[in-house]
Amino acid sequence: MTLSELNKPARSGAATGASASTRRMINRDKLEADILAQAVRIFAECGYEGTSIATIAEQAGLSKQNLLYYFPNKQALYKRVLDDVLDEWLERMNLLADAGKEPQQVLRSYVEAKLRFSREHPWGSRLYAMEVIGGAPMYGQEIKKKLIPLLRKDIAVFEQWISEGKIAPVNATHLLFTIWAMTQSYADFSTQMCLVLNRKQLTRSDFADAEKLITDMVLASISLKESAPPSAA
């Protein structure tokens, strides 16, 4: 038997082990994603106090003990859900942190991204809103740690645009607060909107209309006013 032949079984065994490990990792990631998908919905519907680990486990098709293998307690699961929500939201805030781009296009993209988040992740948006409305008792420090540095970067971008004469002087902090309120309401208050519109859920057309209106309002707030023509002598 040659040396290469002696080595074949070892390589085959290693490959099989690696393949099994990869499958386990994929299965673990999928199971974790299923848990988080059920958790964000149930926390948003029932609140932290009204949610039980057993209910989330049942909805995810697991035993309570199996769920606790992935998340040791309800608080850890709650914070992980909010981590995912805030991280995805902050990813959209990064759209602003580039003073080299034209402000009008950046803000168009930002409004579109925030509304897409409300359309695609309504439960996450509602849960985050509930935590904040309640005074952020369990997640306030994380919000300060993650949100404030990026907000300061975005404000610096607005200040640079203003100094370069690209946009009108504007209170960037309150403009961003206003954009957040307008875009997130399409998730957090969608029930009220549907009642007023007499439909079961908001449509893509509703979001498109909202995007146009909000974008027009935001761009109007930063537009440079044209100088009045000199009066005739």
What does this structure look like?
Keywords: DNA-binding. The protein has 233 residues and is an all-alpha fold. The chain folds into 2 domains: 17-72, Homeodomain-like (Arc Repressor Mutant, subunit A); 82-224, Tetracycline Repressor, domain 2 (Orthogonal Bundle), CATH 1.10.357. Helices cover 76% and strands 0% of the residues. Helix 4 (74-93) packs antiparallel against helix 5 (103-120), helix 4 crosses helix 6 and helix 5 packs parallel to helix 8 (172-188). The longest helix has 44 residues, at 3-46. The termini are far apart. Mean pLDDT is 88; it is low at 1-7.
The largest sheet is: none
What CATH architecture label of the largest domain applies? Answer: Orthogonal Bundle
- The Rg value, from CA coordinates, equals 25 Å
Give, in order, the helices and strands: HHHHHHHHHH
What is the third-level CATH name, the topology of the largest domain? Tetracycline Repressor, domain 2
**Number of separate helices:** 10
Residue-averaged pLDDT: 88
SSE class:
mainly alpha
